[in-house]
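dumping this here so i dont lose it
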């Protein structure tokens, strides 16, 4: 059977032959029913033919396959507008521009349909922006938001060759670099553009965002402060500053600013969510709960506040809220992120009720959806593990010995997530000589920098590039790490970096900071792996959404840690979560013996320590050690055959 090409369908549409084009679409979909481009074209044909039910059916299939595709929501907006349902039309046009701000027709419709002055102002601004944007860059912008990054980059670079000082071109190229996670390039492009147009607020917003992503929180805060002073009445500038205040630990200032923003716009569900996160971080749990509940009142289908309640680990969902979540997840939540959040929240809610089968069903549904949208390849990760073992041989480690920055300040707590690392951090930071900080991404950023612009199909430069670095260059990386992390410290002799993924780069750490302490938190395999499976991570743990990926990652981690112990003998402490729970005093004493500090009484009463904690275990580490989490997985044992089989391989 001949399957029509999309180009021939598009040609028929351009000629106004919608019936012929629709016939070709249906033929193409018989051969490939999940062809998203053809589903979109079929919906367009149906709309022009006034076959609105069929158009909606095609778009419903399209949204399930591509929930972030803005043009699908734009088509729905056109359909609802044609049938006189202007309220639904406006909802969909707003969804369209949220997913793809380059959609001129949607902004025009928002401008015409909305009665909200802020939406009107935003629409007018964006229409004006798109009107003055060169045609090539308008296409680049659309490609970016449709995740067609190679096409976007090629077109943008071609445009920049002809217009090398075009500021908006630099800004879009920086967006592409950010999407590729080449954050140093993005930062450089935005810095250069700001030198050309220092008063360009949009450049400065993007610059703050990149600095924040690079964990340059102090610089991001300074830029956000400048922006807020330039635009004191602008809500976006004030929100940006509040976010940066929270990032550098100015929690009281952030709380005051979020509250002011809420008073100004009490219909924005994002604002109480962000305020709730700050309250959670500093241990004001009831105020966090109140904020999350107020988010839900404002937007019942917004999944994040439900998951934020579940992620407190101590909140008991009332039955009415559970019923509401079930309604939202099966019907009204059309956003993929919302559905993922709702499924994970329902998993925890039913777990609290000891309805473990229903709980597992929702954990599984959330993981299945999330696994489809994360960009994770277990073979790539296995290769990364292998490259570490191949390069860091005993002879190579010996060749690098004695280089790097000799400071003893850093204590790296690493391993897999959900292994008690936050508990260990809380114990350590209860000592007068140790500062607790965050999961710092600096080491991971250096890895990216050393690897350069290497994508999955190319040969990695890292870690073998380390052999090319001089002792001075290695020491510079160590000194840079100490300087960049200084903002998180409060004056103690030692500080903690709790980024779990650093276990993949112990060789780099020991090369640039040879005297750093390294603590590997370990947990029994099934207990660890299932705990990972039922945790929805903000970012950085893409392996965690299928049993097979989790098992392979766990096995790779164990093998790599065994290698690190061989090449760095007696330099790494393995601390078992089960031992910590069973014999806390003995295990904590061993921990401080390794650090080389005397045990202080406060370290045994760590749960009384007042400090900000940003991880999922924030409320658990504010309680004494207990046995609750040790064998939690056993409640789910009937559903873990796949995980057991994968771990046994």
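and the seq i came up w/
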């Amino acid at each position: 059977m001949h399957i029509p090409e999309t180009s021939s369908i598009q040609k028929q549409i351009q000629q106004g032959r919608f019936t012929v084009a629709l016939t070709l679409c249906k033929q193409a979909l018989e051969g490939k029913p999940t062809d998203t481009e053809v589903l979109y074209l079929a919906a367009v044909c149906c709309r022009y033919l006034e076959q609105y039910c069929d158009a909606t059916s095609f778009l419903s299939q399209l949204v399930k396959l591509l929930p972030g595709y803005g043009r699908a929501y734009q088509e729905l907006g056109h359909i609802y507008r044609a049938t006189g349902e202007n309220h639904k039309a406006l909802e969909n046009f707003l969804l369209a521009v949220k997913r793809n701000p380059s959609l001129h027709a949607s902004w025009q419709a928002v401008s015409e349909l909305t009665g909200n002055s802020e939406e009107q102002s935003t629409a007018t601004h964006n229409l004006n922006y798109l009107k003055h944007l060169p045609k090539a860059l308008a296409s680049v912008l659309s490609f970016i938001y449709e995740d067609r990054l190679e096409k976007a980059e090629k077109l943008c670079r071609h445009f920049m060759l002809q217009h090398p000082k075009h500021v908006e071109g630099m800004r879009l190229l920086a967006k592409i670099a950010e999407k590729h996670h080449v954050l140093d390039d993005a930062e450089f492009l935005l810095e250069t553009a700001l030198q050309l147009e220092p008063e360009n607020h949009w450049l400065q917003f993007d610059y703050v965002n990149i600095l924040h992503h690079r964990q340059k929180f102090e610089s991001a805060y300074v830029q956000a402060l400048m922006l807020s002073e330039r635009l004191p009445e602008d809500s976006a500038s004030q929100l940006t500053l509040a976010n940066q205040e929270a990032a550098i630990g100015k929690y009281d200032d952030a709380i005051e600013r979020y509250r002011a923003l809420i008073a100004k716009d009490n219909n924005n569900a994002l604002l109480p969510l962000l305020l709730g996160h700050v309250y959670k971080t500093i241990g004001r749990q009831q105020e966090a709960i109140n904020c999350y509940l107020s988010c839900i009142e404002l937007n019942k289908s917004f999944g994040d506040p439900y998951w934020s309640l579940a992620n407190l680990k101590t909140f008991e969902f009332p039955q009415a809220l559970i019923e509401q979540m079930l309604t939202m997840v099966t019907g009204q939540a059309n956003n993929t992120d919302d559905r993922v959040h709702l499924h994970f929240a329902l998993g925890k809610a039913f777990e609290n009720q000891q309805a473990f089968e229903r709980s597992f069903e929702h954990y599984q549904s959330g993981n299945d959806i999330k696994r489809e949208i994360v960009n994770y390849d277990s073979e790539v990760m296995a290769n990364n593990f292998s490259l570490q073992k191949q390069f860091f041989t005993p002879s190579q480690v010996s060749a690098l010995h004695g280089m790097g920055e000799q400071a003893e300040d850093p204590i790296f707590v690493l391993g897999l997530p959900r292994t008690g690392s936050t508990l260990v951090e809380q114990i350590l930071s209860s000592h007068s000589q140790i500062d607790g900080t965050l999961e710092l991404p600096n080491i991971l950023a250096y890895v990216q920098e050393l690897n350069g612009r290497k994508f999955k199909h190319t040969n990695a430069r890292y870690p073998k590039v380390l052999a090319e670095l001089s002792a001075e260059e290695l020491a510079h990386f160590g000194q840079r790490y100490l300087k960049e992390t200084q903002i998180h410290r409060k004056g103690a002799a030692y500080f903690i970096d709790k980024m779990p993924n650093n276990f993949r780069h112990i060789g780099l750490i020991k090369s640039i900071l040879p005297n750093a302490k390294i603590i590997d938190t370990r947990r029994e395999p099934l207990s660890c792996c299932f705990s990972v499976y039922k945790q929805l991570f903000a970012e950085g743990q893409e392996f965690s959404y299928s049993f097979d990926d989790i098992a392979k990652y766990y096995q790779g981690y164990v093998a790599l840690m065994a290698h690190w112990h061989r090449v760095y003998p007696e330099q790494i402490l393995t601390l078992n979560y089960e031992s910590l729970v069973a014999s806390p005093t003995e295990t904590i004493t061993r921990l401080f013996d390794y650090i080389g500090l005397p045990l202080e009484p406060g370290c045994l009463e760590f749960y009384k320590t007042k400090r900000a904690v940003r991880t999922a275990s924030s409320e658990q580490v504010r309680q004494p050690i207990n046995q609750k989490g040790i064998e939690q997985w056993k409640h789910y044992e009937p559903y873990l055959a796949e995980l057991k089989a994968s771990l046994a391989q």
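The first helix runs from residue 6 to 14.
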